[in-house]
Amino acid sequence: MLDIKFVRENPDVVRDDLRKRKDEEKLSWVDDLLSKDEQWRQLKGATDQLRSQRNKLSMQVNEVKKAGGDIKPILEEVKKIPERIKESEERMQELEKGIKHILMRLPNIMHESVPYGPDETGNEVVRAFGTRPEFSFEPKNHTDIIESLGIVELERAAKIAGSRFYFLKGDLAMLDFALQMHAMSFMAEKGYTPIVPPHMMNRDAYEGVTSLADFEDTLYKIEGEDLHLIATAEHPLTAMYKDEVIDAASLPIKLVGISPSYRKEAGSHGKEEKGIWRVHQFTKVEQIIICRPDQSWVFHEELITNAIQFFESLGLHFQQINICTGDLGIVAAKKYDLEAWIPSVSQFKEVVSASNCTAYQAVRLNIKYREGNENRWVHTLNSTCVATSRALVAILEQNQQADGSVLVPEVLRKYMGKERITPAKNIQTW
User: Fold this and answer.
1) Which of 145, 333, 345, 368 sits a CA distance of 20 to 30 A from 45?
2) Contact 110, 331 (CB under 8 A)
3) Residue 127 bridge partners (DSSP)
4) Distances (CA, A) of 71 to 50, 57, 420
5) Are strands 200-201 and 281-291 parallel, antiparallel or unpaired?
6) What are the b/e assignments for 96-121, b being 16+ CB within 10 Å?
7) Ranges 35-39, 137-141, 426-430: which has the least confidence
8) Positive or negative torsion for Cα 166, 172, 174, 175
């Protein structure tokens, strides 16, 4: 969330940002927030004065008592003060709740380089990578490919878990593991510390990394417990530093997390959404950087460059997108996406998101760094390295062959022990 001090000192910046986002209904929130903040500060000053007055009167009682004077009038005045302090504190608590409610829902301030646009149609293509595959045959969609190869169980997964779940089998399972191993090794070689995070987080920590007002319907909640299944390793890896002050000498912190991601994915149920593209559970390798504010924009470019180099290593055709004002969520100040070419639908589709959240998550999580005698907010950044299910789809569709086989990307062959995936010898394995 935004620091109240920033809003107090830069209300017009906040208002202008809301206008860019076409979120003008929240403009009145800024006035309401500033009004509540002003009331709170006035009450805080008055309450401090009451406490000071109580201390002075207590000293006066002792002095009058020593002098043999009448202390009753002073005691009567002293007795009234605690009730006035209590009333003031209760009102301050109400104001604090209102202030936090608004701050938690106001979006981050966007970077000046975010393109203006009403929705995803305003996103800008930065550049394309790789060569678009050409086929001498009608390319199949990934669902037909994996079913014909006998390397997935969709109906059996639906039988025990419902739609949008799957069993990866044989070479497809191995290809998924190969992507994970390649991604973790790729990032570790770049100096990122490998992390396996908890798969669950409590609500307080989750509210620190994202807006639950927008995201809660996507999360799986553990019945009867204050726990949610994580939707990405980004969330626990960022929240692990909650309520900490980090030594400036320890920055930047660079992490690469690997975990399952659990999401109540919504979306169309058309042919292109079947299979393993939009699912409730998938493995994701995530990049995280926690740094000083003056470093974050350089590191944002580093994160997207890492993702670009990873997808280039797979030999895939994809493009980089700069997300526009109307398509940017409330947490990021700027976001890049990578979109892989999916031949069966002749479209680019998202496989990576890279965000600079500036101090937005840090304020919510209370993460600061110590520089000299001052504590300052860190900046937090995150980017997908690879969400394996979507990378699998891109590999399967771009590398499909006329005979029904699929070429394995060269960089993954050492993990697979083969150059291509051919039909399983026994499709009905269980």
Assistant:
1) 368
2) no
3) 320
4) 19, 10, 96
5) unpaired
6) eebbeebbbebbbbbbeebeebeeee
7) 426-430
8) negative
Classify each residue of 362-393 as buried b or exposed e, where b means 16 or more C-beta atoms within 10 Å of its C-beta: bbbbebbbeeeeeebbbbbbbbbbbbbbbbbb
The DSSP annotation for 395-412 comes to HHHHTB-TTS-EEPPGGG
Structural domains of the chain, ranges and CATH numbers in brackets: 4-103 (1.10.287.40), 120-421 (3.30.930.10)
Cis amide leading into 252 (omega within 30): yes
Mean pLDDT, rounded, for 340-347 = 97
CB atoms within 10 A of CB 88: 18
* pLDDT tens for each residue of 255-308: 999 999 999 976 544 454 689 999 999 999 999 999 999 999 999 999 999 999
SS3 call for 44: helix
* pLDDT on residue 348: 98
3-state secondary structure of 318: strand
Rounded Cα–Cα distance for residues 107 and 326 (Å) = 12
Closest alpha carbon to 241 in 230, 227, 255? 255
DSSP, res 221: B
Question: What does the pLDDT average to over 70-86?
Answer: 78
**Beta pairing, strands 420-421 & 406-407:** antiparallel
CA distances from 75 to 51, 63, 157, 266, 401 (A): 15, 13, 76, 66, 93
What DSSP assignment string belongs to 135-190?
A: -SS-PPPHHHHHHHHT-EEHHHHHHHH-TT--EE-THHHHHHHHHHHHHHHHHHHT
Task: Report the candidate in 21, 363, 354 with the shortest Cα–Cα distance to residue 209.
Answer: 363
- The predicted-structure confidence for 298-313, as pLDDT tens digits, reads as follows 999 999 999 999 999 9
Bridge partners of residue 383, in order along the sequence: 287, 354
What is the tens place of the pLDDT at every residue in 186-219? Answer: 999 999 999 999 999 999 999 999 988 777 888 9
Compute the distance between CA of residue 420 and CA of residue 407 in angstroms, rounded to an integer: 4
SS3 label, residue 197: coil
Q: How far is residue 336's CA from residue 383's CA, in Å, rounded to a whole number? A: 9
Residue 429 phi, psi dihedral angles, 5° rounding: -90, -15
